[in-house]
Design a protein that fits this description.
Oligomer: single chain
Number of strands: 2
Distance between the termini: 51 Å
Order of helices and strands: HEEHHHHHHHHHHHH
Strand order of the largest sheet: 1-2
Helix content: over 70%
Number of domains: 1
Radius of gyration: 19 Å
Length: 334
């Protein structure tokens, strides 16, 4: 099993290394690029999209060549494929927000149909279904929103996937382990081209795929064997995109802007101003925060409920203080 996991990782990694330049060439040839606008998009030259397609193909081929298929695996693969295709169409500029949301809802339905949903025993089945929809659509769009800086969403996905891999191995959940190890390999290979200065971006195809897949994997494991509040652990593993999404929604609502229209309200963009304008330092700082929060999530699994509440309250106070500090940044001067 260890050999299979290692094989899955290296296959995905090598396939991403080979496939990403091919995806970049195709994107440039067909004009699927992100063009600078002088406001939110400050890169000097158009940058290719379709990086997410290279990540997805590397991930899919690795899974297909190293792991035996079962019903749960097929459901996860089909749902991830649907979300990836929705994002790919959106990268070509052919989707508005509503059809995009419908596509994500169809992917969630595929998982629900296969019995893949959040399992929190003290809430009724209908609430579990509603929470599953909210969680998966929310995670998809959280990573989509976090893809605003070279290497950011890719690295956050890699870190989150690593923590989920650890939990999967501790739980003996090999389906999740093979999924996460393939994603880690694909993202690591892609990061070679996506870190600052990036020559290719994930696009909606990649960011939606990462968010939806990690969200799906996070909800199919047992976190409550030692701690009744252990189900909070995935929130720590995926904390940064989630926190940024709510932060952006709050600031846009307060300013009277529609929450789905772009604005420089994101945590990383404000942090970059605080750090003197360095993209590399900002992304590395976000990586560090993600590692720390994920580590706390691992610890939470083994704590008692009272200690979990104390720790989570302390983390909440620190996060709130940081958000207040970042909220005072004047982004009009960007």
């Amino acid at each position: 099993m260890v050999i299979q996991l290692m094989l899955g990782f290296f296959l995905a990694y090598l396939l991403a290394l080979v496939g990403t330049p091919m995806a970049r060439d195709a994107a440039l040839r067909f004009g699927v690029v992100d063009r600078p606008d002088g406001q939110l998009k400050l890169h000097e030259q158009p940058v290719a999209y379709l990086g997410g397609l290279a990540v997805f193909v590397a991930f899919l081929l690795s899974i297909g060549m190293t792991f035996e298929f079962d019903e749960e695996l097929l459901a996860l693969l089909l749902a991830s494929t649907i979300v990836t295709m929705v994002g790919l169409v959106d990268d070509f500029g052919a989707l508005t927000p509503k059809p995009k949301a419908v596509g994500q809802a169809v992917a969630v339905f595929v998982l629900l149909k296969a019995g893949v949903m959040l399992h929190i025993i003290f809430i009724p089945w209908w609430a579990r279904i509603a929470l599953t929809v909210f969680w998966l659509v929310g995670m998809s769009n959280a990573f989509n929103l976090s893809d605003i800086m070279d290497g950011l969403a890719t690295g956050l996905g890699l870190i989150s996937g690593t923590y989920l891999l650890v939990v999967a191995l501790l739980n003996g959940r090999m389906v999740v382990a093979f999924f996460t190890v393939a994603m880690i390999g694909a993202l690591l290979g892609f990061l070679r081209f996506n870190f600052h200065p990036a020559v290719i971006y994930l696009g909606d195809c990649g960011s939606l795929f990462i968010g939806f897949t990690l969200g799906s994997l996070a909800m199919v494991m047992d976190y409550t064997r030692y701690n009744e509040l252990g189900f909070l652990a995935p929130l720590y593993f995926l904390a940064l995109p989630v926190i940024d999404t709510f932060f952006v929604m709050f600031l846009r609502a307060r300013a009277g802007r529609k929450i789905y229209y772009g604005s420089p309200d994101h945590i990383p963009l404000r942090l970059r101003r605080r750090l003197g304008g360095s993209t590399t330092r900002t992304v590395l700082a976000c990586y560090g925060a993600s590692v720390v929060l994920g580590g706390i999530g691992l610890v939470v699994i083994y704590l008692d409920p009272v200690t979990t509440l104390i720790v989570s309250s302390g983390v909440g106070v620190i996060v709130l203080a940081v958000l207040i500090w970042l909220g005072r940044v004047d982004m009009e001067a960007e």
